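Retro notes - structure team

What went well: the batch runner handled both jobs without manual restarts.
What didn't: labels got mixed up in the shared folder, which is why I'm recording both outputs here explicitly, each with its sequence directly above its tokens.

Job 1
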Amino acid sequence: MKLVKTSVKRPVGVIILALAIIAFGLVSVRDLAVDLFPEIELPIAVVATSYGEAAPQDVESLVSEPIEAAVSSVEGIETVQSQSQSGSSLVMLMFSSGTDLDQALLDVRESVDQVGAMLPDQAGDPNIMRFNPDQMPIVTLGLTGGDTEALTDVANDDIVPYFERQEGVASVTVEGGRESEVQLVLDPEKLQQYGVSEQVIAQALNSSNQSASVGNVERGDKDLQMRVTGEFESLEDIERTIIQTETETTVYVEDIAEVNETVKETSETTLVNGEQSIVLSIMKNSDANTVGVAEVIRDGMDELNEDMVSDVNLEMVMDTSEFIEMSIDSVIQNILIAGAIAIFVLLLFLKSVRATLVVGVSIPIALVSTFALLYFSGQTLNVLTLGGLALGIGMMVDSAIVIIEHIDTYRKRGYGAVESAIKGASELAPAVIASTTTTLVVFLPIIYVEGIASDLFTPLALAVSFALITSLAAAITLVPMLSSKLLTKAMENNGRRYWFDRFLEWLRDKYQVVLEWALHHRKTTIAGTVLAIAGSLALTPLIGAELIPGSDEGQMQIRVETVPGNSAEYMEAKIEQVEEEIQGYGDIIETNFVSYGGGGMMGGSANTASYTILLVPAGERDQTTSEFVQEVDEDLQGIVGAEITVSEMSDMDMGNPIQIQLNGPEHDVLRELSDQVVNRIDTVEGVFNPETGAAEGVPQMNIEIDDDQAAMYGLNQEQILGQVQTKFTGQVVTQISEEGQEIDVTMLYPEDERSTIRDLQDMNIQSQTGSTIPLEEVASFNEVQGPVALTRENQQPQSNISSDITGRDLGSVVSDVEDELANMSLPEGYSYEIGGQAEDMAESFTELALALVFSIFLVYAVMAIQFENFLFPLIIMFALPATVVGVMIGLFVTGLPLSVVALMGVIMLAGIVVNNSIVLVDYMNILRRNGMDRYEAIIEAGRTRLRPILMMTLTTVLAMIPIALALGEGAELQQPLAVTIIFGLSVSSIFTLVLIPVVYSMFDDLSQKITGKRKKKEEA
């Protein structure tokens, strides 16, 4: 090849180009974003709407249903889900893969705008946003010391603005804070005495709190803008606001209400390690470097702490970058170990330090070049891209091994260094390119795979492909050039490592005996292979299946739920009990952060508390996170009066392992069926903490207004509803500006006037004529159990049951759960579906199975082009079925379930295992073309190619052992991939050396028979 000759003749240019690539690659590494996993794009949009303190039924009928109907016609939507709970609606829109989400969001916004006028006046403006996993906080900080209100001011005035100015920070949210509020506590007796209603007060305050421009006037040669100022600047301004009564007299606000500046009533509380704190959650920009942003935040913490008063302290609660850094460090360590193992194997076989150096130079060139290509393709450095490089270390030297061995063959024949390099590399360059191409083409079908599998493995496929392409380029340019300069003589045995040569010769003799036996017992060999494949497939039920291997990230969650309606004091007592139990694990738990009592639009309820717990690194504890979760769960079950759920958390949250969706026309029936399903699946081995989304009802007082009776007093439902809301929830009537902040002015009644049922029944409603009547005159009261939340999917009521798993694989547990559900007798019109990870697993397995079939076809096509023959590629492809034996044995021995990661390993094997067969069959054909008998050619080819086949197999297999052992943090994700390739390639190499020669001879016999019959017909 001209490229080979040019590289050998122009060594300076090749060296300069190699150094330039290395320098550019090193610069690219600095700019590559570092993350734990590749970005998983979820085509999901969210429409969130608030609605005062309305009950879930009202939220569903008045807000969720109109929005659902409006957006359902948007193109590309597959599923519309809604969750309606007290005061808020959340509508999730799931689009089909490949949908342009930017355009879809515009369509959704137009549809929601059209229905906006139909929503209640009290409903907030719908907030439409893209669902993005990057919206999860990368760092959580705790602010402790001092008064909560003062800490809130420090957080909002100093800390939030400081961090939001930092590069890469998207937003900072504050939890557990207290907002200032001005309260107008009305005096009911004074209201009645002066004949003033709440509406009159609200109108007076709004009218008095106004500023506006009213035009311009001339003054000399200048125009002066006129502006009337009347905004409230102090509490005194509010107190001195004049109110006109119905009798044409005037009173001041201070005459009928008490004006106080206080904090808003809230039930949200946050504790960090048992101490009340303000918690700040920091989100990064989608294109920002997680590790870099976290480092900026840590530096900022030190700077802020220096400026704070002594008793106030800003401390780290959660830092996701720590696990990322540990995971990346462990992968880099595995890459270095893999590289050292590959170099050792090369040195063992090549018996020359110089030859090993020539081949080994492909590794750093390929690695550094890959970093540059990853940068330009928009990828990040994560455990999968780096794991792909660690897996490909051994494969990076395969092309160089073949090239340098052939160059050495010419040196032994007496050719000069330059001529040997040119001839040896040129002759085998086409075969090496074809061999590498068979490995590369298996990744092409990944482009057409959709969903989670595509998001996870496209970066890995790109990393491995880039590494193989650059290592191939180095093999046909840099290796020949270095060989011509460094290998001044053939790689001869000069007494060193003679024991290894004797071992190889002994191995050749034993292999020849086995091969000769197989050629004389071809049917037995084929039958034995078929039995081995069938036996390995029989292990499938024992292996099981899962979606993604779990990583021990040391994060867990505890959810405490009390009976709806219990007081805040009761919840605090349960929190204290949980805290006492947690303190007993001080040597394992690093940080715990709890939030309870609600907060945020969809942030839980008054009877729910959520703990987020960070454990010490895995290397510093004897238990895995999963084992620790089960232990804590058992200990906390002794706390009575609360339902406590303990679960493991992960940065790559794939949803609940098991999720059962019940569909039907009635929420009440679905709630009953949900309880039945939970009881049934709880008996299945491996099901852990099943729970239903249809929680126990909240005590609710229904006020049923008698329209006829209300009409007699000139009232309607809207007027009565407004007055009840004002008395029992308060009404924001205006705002006051204080030190640059807008503070709500809320009008409400004294607490002792709005706390009991009697207060509700005795409440006076003002009619249009100004007279007052008790509420019970126009309404009746009925106490019921109202729902906590109502869920719908595709405009039909739905109830979700979710569960974690433990002790068993996902596939086995799902199979048993399906058996239990099949035995249930559901009412007519009700059905169920299995979702969660189980659904994603089934879809991903199907997608990857199709990708595997397509990959096998592409490998065959490449070999057919290489051999210009359809028969020889078919012979070589017989190495693939035998791969199943190694894969299944490997997963069974290591106790790993079949996962999408393991299936990705099978796809990679389709391109790797054929390389050994290509080397073997190609040499058989060469020997036969040189006149050797078929039997002798097979034996000679086997003995001759045993050494390079062993070398290529061992460099690939041994280099993956550190990954297969899952050494370091976060290594569990690549483990199935490494195990699959190690066992699959090892076993298939054995079958290749024995089975392929047998298949070759059988196909040759068949070919001769067909040819003989054809000749006889021609002669006849």
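Job 2
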Amino acid sequence: MERLSALFPSAFPALALAHFMALLSPGPDFFLLIAYAVRYRLRGSAGLCVGIAIGNGLYILLAIIGWGILRQIPLLFTAIELLGALYLLWIGSLLIRSRPQIVAGADARLNRPGFGKQLLLGLGSSLLNPKNALFYLALMTALLGPSVTLLQQTVSGIWMTSVVLVWDLLIVMFIGLPQIQKRLTRGILWIERIAGGVLIIFGSAIALRFLHSLTLS
């Protein structure tokens, strides 16, 4: 028990629960994963999962070493937020303009993006969402409290990063099941377009919020 208490903070159950509940709330990463998993299955989406997990891990690391600077430099937050809006609009437009293709077989393998491209897309989607930074900052500070040790923060960070990776992989593995693919084949183009539309809505909302703040100031 002493070893466990040294590794895990007393608030770890609350941390793990809050983090998992946040994963259940669909965000830009989720819709990007859905769009790729429907067309390319696990091999065309695994890199996205890894990139998203790395992005989350980097924000957790920044929260541990003191991401409070983000609050002290609002221009930095705004710049990241605007880059994120542009990124979501770009990805969304690509999905909306996607063309019908065969979902399975040699054609799908031929058009499947490489692992490196997948990783960069997932990393960009995660890092260009500054809400991730604020979310992890809240979890790692307010929830864990001032008495948490560096070791406990590290273990908690590794746990959350691993959960993000496993959860995303489970999503794309489920979508890649043959019986699920059969049901999704006819609507793949609409699924991609809906996912693209949702990403555009996310990006537009961020941009409109920025413009609204400018008019108020």
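One thing worth noting from job 2: Residues 102-107 have pLDDT under 50 and may be disordered.
We'll revisit the folder naming next retro.
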